[in-house]
Amino acid sequence: MLHLVEQASYHILVVIIPYIIYHLFIREEEQNRSKLFSKLLGVSFVSIILTMSNPIEYSEGYLYDFRVIPIIFVFLFGGIRPGLILMISMILFRYTLGGDGFLVNLVNYSIATFLLILLKNKFNTYTLNKKVFMISLLYWGITLTRIISLIINGHFHAISFILTFCFLTWSTLLLLIFLINSLDQQIIYYNQMQQSERINVVSQLAASVAHEVRNPMTSIKGFLQLIKRESNLNDNQRKYIEISLAELERTEAVIHDYLSLANPSKKSVMNELDVTNELHSVIDIITSYTNTHSIVIKSNVEEDLYVKGKENEFKQAILNIMRNSVEAIDTNGTLEILGYKKEDKVLIEIKDDGVGMSTKQLAKLGAPYYSTKDKGTGVGLTITYKIIKDLKGKITVHSKPDIGTRFIIELPSIK
User: By CB distance 3.0 to 4.6 Å, which of 104, 157, 262, 338 could disulfide with 349?
Assistant: First the structure.
């Protein structure tokens, strides 16, 4: 009995310790775990080799280890491709170990792979409680097949053993799920703190500079407008003045964005906001711009979409995203706007078939000073993210280079 306790302790430790190291020192972000050779895959590979190298024999020809934990982890918290790499590595290592039961092992884990791929497709949309439930359901389903195999082969004495060790495996699995969830939350909070620090820096810079720049610039603009009215100007002079005025207007727009960030509107009571009407209003505004660029707007907005918010801020946020989409298309493209209700959320999708963005560009989106445009400041999207956050919503962005970008805004519905 003492020998079994020692073996069980060994397997628990060789599975938990690599993931604790991963949690404390590696801190890999969620999007990087889906890479072919992610750090999560490396940690899981070490764990699977250690647990399979010293299995527990609970009946003649039946060996037990904790390999199922790293496999589940890589598939569900990493991705399908790294999951398949780990599964193939496990099968090859099992083959080198020799012994009976290789074909049974191959069939069982092939079925498990199929189930894990099916579960992975929706796994990231689940809440933590639902993730725990689905993983537990999958694990105890695998355990049931083991018990049936023991019954068929007449190894009734091993059933109590397998149930005990399966419970230990399941408990270890749940512990690691909460560990990874804690890591993800820490990374999110850390990124939010960094974002807040950047916004504070920009706010202080904007507050100290913007007002001082705006006053002389307004004077310059006024004098240029007066000079433009002179009748003795030649065509080149008039052209240069028009260019100067256009650049001054663009500079004013940039300063306005910085001032909006530096002097956010005071918190006030959120009113009932008719999202349907506001979306139609913003579409009307952007249409005049898209017509000159041969961009087709397709919209499908459901009726009776309501959230808590402030009209001007909401309109500013949506308009910022639509302008970015139009600029990404440039000419001859399609801008699609959807508004609909899903459960207790109002969702707004803004999709374009423009230049798109890479994974690295997506990771920096919304940060002050960062823009994918040659003449952009990145402040517009920073303000947009802040407005949506104040509305207790969130923004998700999907994009691929040369294919397009899709913004999904999710807000709590009040009706």
Answer: 338
Per cent of the chain over pLDDT 70 is 85
The CA distances from residue 368 to 264, 358, 398, in Å, are 15, 18, 20
Average pLDDT over residues 31-40: 84
State the angle between helix axes of 128-152 and 159-228 in degrees (0 to 180), rounded to the nearest 10: 150
3-state SS, 270-317, equals CEEEEHHHHHHHHHHHHHHHHHCCCEEEEEEECCCCEEEECHHHHHHH
In 10 A of CB 235, how many CB atoms?
7
In whole angstroms, give the CA distance from residue 307 to residue 277: 12
> Looking at 26-35, 127-136, 161-170, which range is the least confident one?
26-35
CA–CA gap between residue 195 and residue 198 (Å, rounded): 5
Segment 42-49 mean pLDDT: 92
The answer to whether 352 and 371 are in contact (CB under 8 A) is: no
Q: Helix (H, G, I), strand (E, B), or coil: what is residue 101?
A: coil
Residue from 9, 6, 71 nearest 41 by CA: 71
DSSP letter, residue 349: E
Location of structure tokens 């000159």: 292
Do 337 and 350 contact (CB within 8 A), yes or no? yes
* Burial track 297-320 (b if 16+ CB lie within 10 A, e otherwise): beeebeeebbbebbeebbbbbbbb
Inform me whether the pLDDT recorded for 137 exceeds 70.
yes
pLDDT band for position 412 (cuts 50, 70, 90): very high
**What distance in Å separates the CA atoms of residue 94 and residue 210, rounded to the nearest whole number?**
66
17: which 2 tokens?
Answer: 């310790």
Q: With helix as H, strand as E and coil as C, how does 13-46 read?
A: HHHHHHHHHHHHHHCCCHHHHHCCCCHHHHHHHH
Q: How far apart are CA 367 and CA 228, in angstroms?
A: 39
**Sheet with 345-352, side-by-side order of all strands:** 295-301, 333-342, 345-352, 404-412, 394-400
Contacts of 152 (CB under 8 A, 6+ apart): none
Whether 257 and 383 have beta carbons less than 8 Å apart is answered as yes
